[in-house]
Amino acid sequence: MHGKRGPAFWFLAAFFGLFVLFLYGPTLTILVLSFQGPSGGLTFPMNGVSVHWFKNLFETQMVGDFAGSFQRSMVLGAAVMVVTVLASFSAGLAFRTRFRGSGVVFYLAIASLIVPSILISLGIGLLFRVLGWDSAWYSSAFGAHLTWTLPFGLLIMFAVFNRFDRRYEEAARDLGATSWQTIRHVVIPILLPSLIGVGLFGFTLSYDEFARSLYTSGTFNTLPLEIYGMTTNVTTPVLYALGTVTTGVSFAVIAIALVSVTWLRRRRARHGSDAGKAA
Fold first, then answer.
1. 39-57+66-273 domain in CATH 3.60.15.10?
2. 264 — phi, psi (to 5°)?
């Protein structure tokens, strides 16, 4: 029999409810207001219900370039994701063996988490200006985003490799596999869910990054910069439609990652069960 729930339980439940409301309340408000009618405004009460502002979002705007900024952020996020996964996985392999200066290299790699993002953006922008190079979303912003995503990827992969059982690799080598074959057919399949998680971090952190893009994106804005610019100029619910679409993309990416990880785990469990029956 469970005891009667005391005041502490209800206090924590109320606190959690307020936290969820504070976290998702603004998003739900934007979602609802984005479906206003053609004559709708930026506040309640709503004036009709339609998808007018979503259609208007993909038309030519007097202010802003949603389609271009969205495409740039998607391409930039995908590139940052790939480099983050490859670099983090490679670093995880390298740091399994201690080498001279490994501690210094590690702390230098994660130091950018301590430095304020706006200072990193400003510093990279000034560096490009001193060198006579033009800042752009595919060069300076790309590097700035990596200073944000790589430390997270490194920390995740270090934790994963600390729990990795190296006997799998030893067994593969005993069966005649080369080092590359061991990594490709043993290490990567086992760590694939973690690599998907690192990729998810890399993409979402880049896709949503504002401060490190502010002085590094050059002439063309990324999506967060475009949204910020639209908040000072756009006075119609098209701004809410933009927020709804971008939030939907973020949740879609997370859902794809979670489905992929779940599928991999079920596939591994099924293969393990089949191998046990065969034995």
1. no
2. -65, -40
Q: Which long-range contacts (CB under 8 A, 24 or more apart) does 191-196 make?
A: 191/89, 191/160, 191/164, 192/264, 193/260, 193/261, 193/264, 193/265, 194/156, 194/157, 194/160, 195/85, 195/89, 196/257, 196/260, 196/261, 196/264
**CA Rg value for the chain:** 24
Nearest partner of 205 among 111, 61, 85, judged by Cα:
85
Find all residues with CB under 8 Å of 192, minimum gap 6, and list them: 264
Nearest alpha-carbon partner for 145 in 121, 169, 129, 119: 121
Mind listing the pLDDT tens digit for each residue in 142-190? 999 999 999 999 999 999 998 888 888 889 888 888 889 999 888 998 8
| Lookup: tokens for 44 | 């309640």
What ranges do the domains of the chain cover?
Answer: 39-57+66-273
Q: Which region, left, alpha or beta, applies to residue 44 given φ > 0 means left and ψ of -120 to 50 means alpha? A: beta
pLDDT tier at 1, thresholds 50, 70, 90 = very low
Distance (Å, rounded) from C-alpha 58 to C-alpha 50? Answer: 15
Which tokens go with 56? 């208007």
Express each pLDDT in 66-125 by its tens digit: 878 888 999 999 999 999 999 999 999 988 888 888 888 888 888 888 888 999 999 999
Q: In 3-state terms, what secondary structure has residue 149?
A: helix
**What is the C-alpha separation between 242 and 236, in angstroms, rounded?**
11
What is the C-alpha to C-alpha distance for residues 28 and 244, in angstroms, rounded to an integer? Answer: 9
